[in-house]
Design a protein that fits this description.
- With 141 residues, the protein is α+β, with helices and mostly antiparallel strands.
- The chain is elongated and about 95 Å long.
- It is built from 3 helices and 4 strands, in the order H-E-E-H-E-H-E.
Length: 141
C-alpha cells in the first residue's frame, strides 16, 4: 500500500514515503556435476602459447622476420611492424624491394605478373618483390 505524497511528507525528518518491495524472483537452475566456477578444459593444442607465423627474408645481407598479416604485401607488413626494407616505386617496376625468402614461403600467395617479369629465373631461387608478394588470406594448418 502506498502512502500519498503531500507537501509535508517531503520535509526532512518526517516519515518517509513507503515504496513497494519487489517480489523475489525464483529461477530454477539445473544442478550439474561440475563445481561452481569451474570450466571445461580446452584441448591441449589451444593451451600452448600462441605462435605467430612469420616469413623470414634477406635483403642486402640483413635478415628480417615479418609477422603474417593476411592480404597485405610483405612490404606493407614490414613497414607496419617497423622493419627496415629498401623500396622505391611500390608497383613492381624498379625491383629495389627484391628479397630472398629464407623461410615461410607457404604463407605467401603465388607470384604476381610484375614479379614474374622483373625477377624471371631468380623467382625459382626464392627471390620475391616485397611490394608485390602478398600473404595468403587463409592458411590451412
Amino acid at each position: 500500500m502506498r502512502k500519498q505524497l503531500t507537501v509535508g511528507s517531503l520535509i526532512a525528518g518526517r516519515s518517509p514515503v513507503q515504496t513497494p518491495v519487489p517480489a523475489p524472483v525464483h529461477v530454477h537452475v539445473p544442478e550439474t556435476n561440475r563445481r561452481a566456477g569451474s570450466f571445461p578444459k580446452l584441448p591441449n593444442h589451444t593451451q600452448t602459447p600462441f605462435q605467430r607465423k612469420q616469413v623470414e627474408v634477406k635483403q642486402h645481407d640483413h635478415t628480417i622476420s615479418i609477422e603474417q598479416a593476411p592480404c597485405q604485401t610483405l612490404l606493407q607488413a614490414a613497414l607496419a611492424q617497423g622493419q627496415p626494407l629498401a623500396y622505391k616505386c611500390q608497383q613492381g617496376y624498379c625491383g629495389k624491394c627484391r628479397v630472398l625468402v629464407v623461410s615461410g614461403t607457404s604463407l605467401l600467395a603465388a607470384p604476381t605478373g610484375p614479379e614474374r617479369e622483373k625477377l624471371g629465373k631468380k623467382l625459382a631461387s626464392g627471390y620475391r618483390l616485397a611490394c608485390q608478394s602478398t600473404f595468403r588470406s587463409t592458411i590451412s594448418d
